[in-house]
Design goal:
362 residues; Rossmann fold
Length: 362
């Protein structure tokens, strides 16, 4: 094992699961320095071993995963990957953990646990290594655009709206992965309704989570947000979230509305939905202001799509390194030379509105 291998603490109340996870991580080049059976032990292990990353179960006796995340982020901020049940209830609690500072999550399989987890071993190792590189320093949360109490900046959109006049809506395609849900929530929550944007959101997450994510965005913003179901048509002030396991494609545009469809074409960059698919189809189809936004995340998804948007005359924004949990996706887009502005997460909503105005007035 490399001397630079990330050091991990594995937290789960099941001895079997702790052993299984530890073995998979060790086999994948991650050094497990300690395991813990509950949240209290996790806090102690992090304090004593100072790991690069923690895998955290949610449901545990005494101190559960949510409380453990809160304690760790207050005591010694450390990148945390939640291990979540693949259920709607599991999704709700997982989003709470992300709000408290966890970077990302990995779904526990049901059924024959050992067989399914082994099949997902490579994916788990990649995600743990990516989360280990995340920046969880205190300065990053301020750039998300959230309020001090953790609420999103939905009211901020109103102040932006009063300062502008919008002649026409535009189309915005947002790409996001590791560390992204709270950033997306803040960005969408800050967009004014009277900008009349049509927003498509591709956040890498499984199918049990995208519906709940859409509900959260709907509650946090002035926009009508829903999970795409196939054959959707959206107009200004509406947003669609690509469902887990399916690509979201812009199939037509006209009369101020977009027509979309879902496909089960092969994953791109190992993910489905892939932002590249949505962005390419938007670049080929949308007539009018078009903005691509590449937010925090590991990998290269969104870079080729952003380039397609730029080639079609649209504008491209990327989140900056300082406010990104993982600077993989924005960095790849920047390296392609297609990014017009690199912005802190909190500046992205204004950047979107500026980009739409530039295109409208061009």
């Amino acid at each position: 094992m490399s001397a630079t291998a990330p050091r991990a603490v594995v937290v789960d109340d099941s001895h079997f699961m702790r052993t299984l996870l530890s073995d998979m991580l060790e086999d994948g080049g991650v050094r497990v320095v300690e395991t813990a059976a509950n949240g209290a032990e996790a806090v102690t292990a992090v304090r004593e071993h100072r790991p690069d990353v923690v895998t955290m179960d949610l449901q545990m006796p005494e101190v559960d995963g949510l409380e453990a995340v809160e304690r760790i982020m207050a005591d010694r901020p450390t990148p945390i990957l939640m291990l979540s049940a693949h259920t709607a209830d599991g999704a709700d609690v997982t989003f709470e953990a992300l709000e408290k500072g966890a970077v990302d999550f990995f779904t526990k399989p049901g059924g024959e646990v050992s067989t399914e987890m082994s099949a997902k071993s490579d994916q788990l190792v990649r995600k743990v290594k990516a989360v280990a590189e995340a920046d969880v320093s205190g300065g990053r949360s301020a750039d998300h655009g959230g309020a001090a109490d953790g609420s999103t900046a939905g009211s901020a959109g109103g102040s932006v709206a009063h300062a502008r006049e919008f002649r026409d809506g535009g189309t915005v395609v947002i790409a996001s992965s590791t560390g992204g849900p709270t950033v997306v929530e803040s960005v969408v929550g800050s967009l004014p309704r009277d900008a009349a944007l049509r927003v498509l959101i591709v956040q890498h997450m499984p199918d049990a989570f995208t519906s709940r994510f859409a509900d959260r965005l709907d509650a946090a913003s002035e926009y009508d947000v829903r999970e795409a179901s196939g054959g959707d048509r959206i107009g200004g002030g509406e947003a669609l979230v690509a469902p887990g396991g399916k690509h979201l494609v812009v199939a037509g545009a006209g009369g101020g509305r977009l027509r979309t469809r879902l496909t089960e074409d092969p994953p791109e960059h190992g993910v489905r939905p892939a932002a590249d698919v949505t962005m390419r189809s938007a670049a080929e189809t949308v007539d009018g202001p078009l903005v691509g936004v590449v937010l925090t995340g590991m990998g290269a998804d969104g870079a080729a799509g952003a380039e397609a948007i730029g080639d079609a005359g649209g504008r491209v924004l990327a989140q900056d390194e300082a406010s990104s949990a993982v600077f993989g996706m924005p960095k790849r887009a920047i390296e392609r030379g297609c990014v017009d502005d690199v912005l802190a997460a909190g500046d992205v909503p204004d950047g979107i509105l500026d980009a739409v105005e530039l295109e409208v007035n061009a």
